[in-house]
Amino acid sequence: MKINENTSLEGQRVVLVPYNAEHVPRYHEWMKSPELQQLTASEPLTLEQEYDMQKSWREDDDKCTFIILDKQRWTDTSVEEEQCMVGDVNIFLTDPTDPSLAELEIMIAEPSYRGKGIGKEVTRMMMCYGVTKLGVKKFQAKIGLDNQVSIAMFKKLDFQEVSVCKVFKEVTLEMTVDESVRTRLLEDMADMKERDYRQTCSDRREPVS
Ligand SMILES: CC(C)(COP(=O)(O)OP(=O)(O)OC[C@H]1O[C@@H](n2cnc3c(N)ncnc32)[C@H](O)[C@@H]1OP(=O)(O)O)[C@@H](O)C(=O)NCCC(=O)NCCS
């Protein structure tokens, strides 16, 4: 999606930046992990296919992707952005007849960053972005039945289980964004800062002395 190509979102522990070609090698390394392939129901790709995927995530109107960075590491301008990568988060507009319906996916790829509240923070940030910038009114998460951590996280965020597909061994959780959900989300995310990604990159290259 082009809408976020110059957007960075700053939370408490993370910064979300658009998925660029420079992020692909690390992303490709992550996705060699059989554990991550299983948890995210992904097929292994060649490096070339991964670049094509990044391009389609960037350009297709129905996909919005951010890379999750460790904010503390990223604040240190001597650390390359690729070395700050922790995972990714996506919104997919799955129904061409209903652009207000969004599927959410999140991956904290680096195991040492899991279980520290980052998944919840990033999911809320992405929901806030989806509601305010993309006009999302309903979020869905489709999760493998074995992925108890992810199921627990979405339930903790007040998603409700709506169906179980035994064939695909996955559960669908949903959250409808009514006025009270929207208000709470915006309140919770009041500290989130949106910046111009090009500006933040140039600030990193030429830090203010
Ligand atoms: C699933 C995932 C996104 C959760 O993110 P996270 O940063 O590890 O989770 P958080 O620390 O924010 O915890 C969120 C909630 O998940 C649950 N949770 C986290 N770790 C858990 C664990 N080890 N066991 C059980 N529940 C757990 C808890 O309910 C927690 O809320 P609480 O801390 O208020 O009790 C992350 O673990 C991940 O990306 N795993 C690998 C890829 C994956 O499974 N992606 C999802 C595909 S659908």
From TrEMBL:
Catalytic activity: N-terminal L-methionyl-[tubulin] + acetyl-CoA = N-terminal N(alpha)-acetyl-L-methionyl-[tubulin] + CoA + H(+)
Segments forming domain N-acetyltransferase: 34-178
Superkingdom of the organism of origin: Eukaryota
Cleavable signal peptide: none
GO molecular function annotations of the record: tubulin N-terminal-methionine acetyltransferase activity
Family: Belongs to the acetyltransferase family. GNAT subfamily.
Function: N-acetyltransferase that mediates the acetylation of the N-terminal residues of alpha- and beta-tubulin.
Name under which the protein is recorded: Alpha/beta-tubulin-N-acetyltransferase 9
Species for this entry: Sparus aurata
Name of the coding gene: NAT9
